[in-house]
């Protein structure tokens, strides 16, 4: 009666909260996903969730199937890992670089889980790498790079992890705090607080201010997100960060968050790897673990709905 695809679909629906985003995550059209859910409901003789609710609210029957999915799917993943290791495919090296200061929130639990299941794979984040790490993939100095800015490099595949929105954090009493979004000219007289990295690597510059020919009045840097938020909350500047990095500060009411532009600035985060490593079982498992962990620990992200590009 129940199939693995049904369990994966229910988990996707729970994690995303909507039929549209769940369909993207499991690589189905919305109509195909709706048909699959209707078929499952007919099989079990009960609705799985309440229609026209956002986020999705599951019925008792839906909750029971979700419980089953939470029990069964991790066991399948564990068996797949064990079978790959028994086949002798466990040896490998995973040296990575991260072009994202706030990525450690989801990356570290990903690495911890991966190490538990693939102890023979050497995992490291080498220090002293340049802040243009993508070319180091081709020379095999690195094996994976987390980036939102793919470069057309021969033999490099960009596996999409998730989509995120860049938001502008302002003090609750800031003159812009009552707005839903800002336009580039709104930042002309502001102090913009950023991480201490090149402007070309920050979405607020490369995809918002620079295309509009706008520069903030002043730029101030801080190493840690919490330091940036303290400065913002005390009205010493504004800061643009990924939506997931602002979640806890928004929930506590420290700051307000505004979209960058009326339709928001949405970007895709990728894992760049060499094409020949894509079929390695441990690499496939790392990418899958990264996606699953991201959706379990981050708020506001979306599925990508594609399989990557070269």
From TrEMBL:
Keywords: Activator, Amino-acid biosynthesis, Cytoplasm, DNA-binding, Methionine biosynthesis, Repressor, Transcription, Transcription regulation. Residues 2-59 form the HTH lysR-type domain. InterPro entries: LysR_HTH_N (IPR000847), LysR_subst-bd (IPR005119), MetR_PBP2 (IPR037406), WH-like_DNA-bd_sf (IPR036388), WH_DNA-bd_sf (IPR036390). GO terms for cellular component: cytoplasm. GO terms for molecular function: DNA-binding transcription factor activity; transcription cis-regulatory region binding. The keyword DNA-binding applies. It is found in: Cytoplasm. Pfam families: HTH_1, LysR_substrate. Belongs to the LysR transcriptional regulatory family. It comes from Kushneria sinocarnis. One of its GO terms (biological process) is methionine biosynthetic process. This is HTH-type transcriptional regulator MetR. The keyword tRNA-binding does not apply. PANTHER family: HTH-TYPE TRANSCRIPTIONAL REGULATOR, HTH-TYPE TRANSCRIPTIONAL REGULATOR METR. It comes from the Bacteria.
